[in-house]
Amino acid sequence: MTELLKLSGVHTHIGRYHILQGIDLVVPQGQTTMLLGRNGAGKTTTLRTIMGLWQASKGEISLAGMRIESRATPDIARLGVGYVPESMAVFSDLTVKENLVLAARDGPLDDAQLDWIFGFFPALRRFWLSRAGSLSGGQKQMLSIARAIIEPRKLLLIDEPTKGLAPAIVMALIECLKEIKRKGATILLVEQNFFAARELGDNVLVMDNGTIVHRGEMAALAADVPLQERLLGLSLEAHQ
Length: 240
What we know:
Layout: E1 3-14, E2 17-28, E3 32-37, H1 43-50, E4 58-63, E5 66-67, H2 73-78, E6 81-84, H3 96-103, H4 111-120, H5 122-126, H6 137-149, E7 155-159, H7 167-182, E8 186-190, H8 194-200, E9 203-208, E10 211-217, H9 218-222, H10 225-232
């Protein structure tokens, strides 16, 4: 399999804290790779370091063979990397439409792409001219994801997208991410919801104390409860 993203010996310090301690990982092109681990293991820091929001203090990060660890976040985004943070990054004072117009850097909004997004997240059409700050938490998450996929991306970095969402919205989100992958995107996904992880993941990486402690197929981990308990402290079903 062709590797799209590769981290080699990546360390990240935040102030006096040494968070990532020599991360080595590969994300294959065209697949969804789950990044799992206990709270505080370094998952969010890994995504933020890839995106350039926090600078790696050591090591190499390559996107399609191009070194990016010293690039600024806007430059990384222009290379085709989309980021959906756990914090649901939207512009609260702007409308849904204005949020998506800002995200579509390459030109006007594409009507076909919008219709495709509305098919998964109809609330965005309904609140098209409403301020994003007036949306519910689930609707803000829909908008955050829509901002990341309004244009085709080589790589999507997504941090716990189902957290706090109603089951119906989780199902729509799963179908949306499956369709994004079918269209050729590569996804690195942090997720605590067992059902979503099992449904979406091709591969899995498990983190602990700032390092990768397990790598393999998601289906194999989903079928091995003792391994889940050893790596995560409890079974994946307990994360639902």
